[in-house]
Amino acid sequence: MNLRIIRLQFVIAFLILTSISMLHLYEAYRSYGTFGLLENTPYTQSLLFDSFSGVPLIYLLIMPLAVSVGVSDIYIQDRKQNLLHYAYMYQLRKNVDLKVILYSSVVAALLVITPLIMNFIGEFLILPNILPERFTNKPLGFFTTYTLNASLYYAMPILYILLYILLVGMWAATMNVLSITLSLYTNKRIYAIIGSFIFQIILIILTNFTDEPYIAPPIYFLLVKTGFMYINVLPILLTFILYVSLSIYFYIRGMRKYELD
């Protein structure tokens, strides 16, 4: 049982993310054409790596909205219009929900990953393919304090960048699950659409009150070089556990409310 993914809202979300990635590509092209700096390479200027541009922040900030509107809301609409009722007649409700959530999460990941890969490939077309090395990249902040596993970045930069893009896709899937389960819990479409976005804003606000946060908004650590916090695996892991725990809670409570109704 698959979602009817190709809808106008999905196309709009994809075009918005792609436009942002292309805007950043143009910005990198213009910057290199003006200054011609040797450190401007695909390994330092791709969307998640460019710490001197505001475009990556915009991309990651609206990512939860793009996922919710482009993917999660399709499930929410299908459920409200009883389009899943036929599947519920022949399979257990939880099995149908699990299949749909998994399928939509893969689509959500692809929605976010595809513009990032397009941006990365485009960087090779406009910037010199010069491998990163510690001396030239240290002024850009690519070292252990601000970058997750900086040694892998210098050893295998292409693999490192692709792994980081996959990490962003994983978080897109996680945000999709949170939005869908929130829709089950609240039965309100608007809450489900803006829920992941608002939750990230709340985490940003809360993080500013602590010197060493144990929970961090995804936008902080999905940037490869972050100036917002010292990079650490523990906040990433705890934040993931928080998202998963809330999703499980919303799903269980939502199913109980449905059974009572």
UniProtKB/TrEMBL annotation:
| Lineage: superkingdom | Bacteria
Give UniProt keywords alphabetically.
Membrane, Transmembrane, Transmembrane helix
Q: Which residue windows are transmembrane per the record?
A: 7-26, 57-76, 100-131, 151-178, 190-209, 229-252
The answer to whether the entry has keyword DNA-binding is no
User: What's the name of the protein?
Assistant: ABC transporter permease
